[in-house]
Amino acid sequence: MSLRGFATINYWADDVVAAAAWYAEALGVEPYFQRPGPDGKLAYAEFRIGDNEAELGLVSRAFAPPGLPDQPGGALMYWHVDDLEGTVARLLDLGATEFEPVTVRGHDFVTASVVDPFGNLLGVMYNPHYVEKFGAAAGTS
Q: Same structural domain for residues 85 and 55?
């Protein structure tokens, strides 16, 4: 067995339309794929983001696995960002709430996390290994 890389992360939302609009504003891109549920309402919206075009899927909570907690918790996946403090400030301005403040982990690794307006944990980090592998984004120092 070999885990070859992050493929898709799903965030749950009672209102996928509102979640898709919030993430489109936060990410600066529209979802590339959307699918309605049996009731005709939007049940899934997917974004491709970052250097590897990782998939962020927004799924109607109606399709969540049984027993999934309705409070933030569990695994916390971090997205690399070149400007951690600016990203956190923007997410908070858009209505997210702080879960974990900006925290220096050592060796230039810095993390933070927020709870999006739909109850999902969204982790962001500055990861020097990521920059070594993919470089910094254009316009960053």
A: no
Tell me the pairing of strands 78-80 and 121-126.
parallel
Contact status, residue 11 vs residue 19, Cβ threshold 8 Å:
yes
Contact (Cβ atoms closer than 8 angstroms) between residue 123 and residue 117: no
Could you tell me what percent of the chain has a pLDDT over 70?
95
Assess contact for 100 and 54: CB atoms under 8 A: no
**The last residue of a domain, from among 62, 92, 111:** 62
Question: In terms of domains, do 98 and 131 share one?
Answer: yes
Look at residue 70 and tell me if it is in a domain. Answer: no
In this structure, what token pair is assigned to residue 81?
């960002």
E strands, the chain, are 8-13, 33-36, 42-49, 54-60, 78-80, 97-106, 109-115, 121-126
pLDDT in tens, 35-78: 999 999 999 999 999 988 999 999 999 998 888 887 887 788 99
